[in-house]
Amino acid sequence: MKVTARVYATLKRYLPEEQANNDVEFELPAGTTVRELIENFLKIPPEAVKVVFVNGKHADMDQVLNDGDRVGVFPPVAGG
Asked: For residues 42 and 74, is the Cβ–Cβ distance under 8 A?
């Protein structure tokens, strides 16, 4: 199945430079979870991730991904 991921803000440092500002498409085995995508394919430590969206909706790390899903991965953010 194909899944597209976009990594935001400080998490871009984990991506190869040529992918840091683009969507990254992956061919994943059926049953892959958000956590597996983040750890095994994006190579981001899960503790660095604060919020994940799948198809624009908040998702938890154990959500199973489906063909065509779009995943957004965000670090903790602070502001004031």
From this structure: no
